[in-house]
Amino acid sequence: QTKTGIALLYDEVSENAYDIRLKLTKEVLTIQKQDVVCVSGSDHSANHRTVTLHRQPVGGLGLSIKGGAEHKVPVVISKIFKNQAAEQTGMLFIGDAIIQVNGINVESATHEEVVHLLRNAGDEVTITVQYLREAPSFLKLPLGSPGPSSDHSSGTSSPLFDSGLHLNGNSTNTAPSSPSSPIANEPKYEKRWLDTLSVPLSMARISRYKTGTDKLRSNAFEVLALDGVSTGILQFYTAQESADWLRAMSTNISDLTLQNMKMANKCCSPSDQVIHMGWVNERLEGTDSSQLYKFKFLALKGSSFYIFSAPPVSTLDWVRAEKIYNLCEVLFKIHKLWLADDCWLQANLYLGIHQDFDLEDQRPYCFSVMVGHGKSHYFNVELGSELAVWEKSFQRAIFLEVQRTGSKTYMCSWQGDALCFTVDFALGFTCFDSKTKNVLWRFKFSQLKGSSDDGKTRVKLLFQNIDTKQIETKELEFQDLTAVLHCIHSFIAAKVASVDPVFIDSQSIARKYMYSN
Questions:
Q1: Which tens digit of pLDDT belongs to each residue from 305-353?
Q2: 210 in helix, strand or coil?
Q3: H/E element, 499
Q4: Where is the PDZ domain (predicted)?
Q5: How many CB atoms lie within 10 A of CB 72?
Q6: How much is the mean pLDDT over the chain?
């Protein structure tokens, strides 16, 4: 998506926001700030301009000012009136900060001091100005070319007083004095939007939260490039504008991620393809039990689920993952969706799996990935659409791995005997003696009617005998019981999907939510 629009850049230190323009292309987000540039004539620096104004009988200096040292901002030109002294110079612009008046420095002067100086400076007033690129938004300065028609402030008034310097002298309707004819080689200035920062969107990430907290920014977010360069806090005038920009940027980032996946997959064997990857926030439990989140980059590739602190950009990076888990032995689970009426939907995708998480945090779009030895990773994404993609991608990656693997065998024991337990996509469950290889029992997936475990190492599997219809209980002890239970779940879900794909789709909590909205 390509898009341009006006936004604010929020400075957390000064707590001021500045007008900027955003330009979004397929690959880059560019931040522009307004500045005054010299477009022709002698090569003067547009940084400081010294302009002589001739006070007119009607209209005075033809400008209004705002700001002052008492507001911790310079005095700036807030209005320029058509066909009057200031406009006729062609060198003054709304947003120009006044630095000197007739050689007197006014950078630290109050509003009233500058008004007094300008009103009593005589008929010829020489002012030195510099365009204030980061004019705080509370000044409510129009963004376009001079004149009231370009006011972006939507009729909202500034808390600061707007002092008009256009009412001096006689108010009879005499014609304004015509501008003096332009001098040859006199510099010509224009106000323009200039690029100040370009953020590449490939592998970029977006955050709507105040760093490390659950506090959601109001109509604002930050975009961070792969190299860590940040846009700063981008603030929008309405929730709708913020949502539109968030969606547009997320779409472009997702498209570029897809391109990166395709490039990576050209170098990988068919059994080792990247199914999905992207940024998430992982919740970390602090020692003082405060909830902190850190950016993590997740990838589903071949037989594994990877967790990175930074995206893998070369083939060598894949071995540098913080964690790598076998896809057959993980369980994906959606925890939270934010519905339109601001209620929470606590969603357990797979019934019967124990829920250990305290869900008091304020982030919507949360999911966990449960791994071996009873451990879990708890993640959050920015958009409901991202949650739906992760849900579908985990499902697909796990099903593909089950079909590729065909079977998984685990060492186990019961009453001192060393046994092997196999989960097989075609045959179901088989238990055999690890030494003699003699099969002790075998059941199909459809014969499993229930299970219970002690949460540590022991599990009871309840099978229905096809002939007698009686329930037979088989007890086994595993070193990593969680991994085995997840593997059983993966194989059964993959089996159901191969027989009835529509049923699996109908169980998707995130996609139901997306369609209903």
A1: 999 999 998 888 999 999 999 999 999 998 865 443 333 333 333 333 3
A2: coil
A3: helix 481-499
A4: 50-133
A5: 10
A6: 83
What's the pLDDT at 462?
Answer: 96
Which CATH topology does 406-515 take? PH-domain like (2.30.29)
Q: Are 174 and 57 in contact (CB under 8 A)?
A: yes
Confidence band, pLDDT 50/70/90 cuts, at residue 149: very low
Domain assignments of the chain as residue spans, ordered by start: 3-37+193-249, 41-135, 268-337+363-402, 406-515
Q: What topology is assigned to 3-37+193-249 in CATH? A: PH-domain like (2.30.29)
Q: Which of 70-84, 247-261, 279-293, 459-473 comes out lowest in average pLDDT?
A: 279-293
Q: How far is CA 299 from CA 46, 309, 328, 397, 490, in A?
A: 50, 11, 15, 10, 18
- Determine the Cα–Cα distance for residues 140 and 154; give it in Å rounded to an integer: 9
Nearest residue to 90 via CA among 49, 133, 135, 149: 49
Does the CA dihedral 502-507-509-510 come out positive or negative?
Answer: negative
Residue 299 pairs in a beta bridge with 277, 306
Residue 266: C-alpha distances to residues 260, 261, 299, 305, 399 (Å): 10, 9, 16, 19, 22
- Asked if domains 3-37+193-249 and 268-337+363-402 share a fold, the reply is yes
Enter the pTM of the model: 0.78
Tell me which CATH code domain 268-337+363-402 carries.
Answer: 2.30.29.30
Higher pLDDT, 57 or 296: 296
Q: Which of 186, 146, 127 is nearest to 36 (CA)?
A: 146
pLDDT tens per residue across span 118-141: 988 889 999 999 988 887 777 777
Cα(69)–Cα(64) distance, integer angstroms: 17
Greatest Cα pair distance in the chain: 115
| Contact by Cβ (8 Å): 416, 475 | no
Banded pLDDT at 200 (limits 50, 70, 90): very high
**CA proximity to 222, closest of 34, 436, 10:** 10
Q: Alpha helix locations (H) across 45-203?
A: 85-89, 111-119
Distance CA 30, CA 464 (A): 64
90 vs 201: CA distance, rounded Å: 39
Beta bridge partners of 473: 462
Give CA 423 to chain center in angstroms. 41
- In angstroms, the Cα distances linking 172 to 58, 163, 363, 365, 377 are 7, 21, 64, 66, 77
- Closest CA relative to residue 307, chosen from 315, 317, 268: 317
Residue 406 is classified by DSSP as: -
Structure tokens at 138: 């509370």
DSSP H or E run through 396: helix 384-405
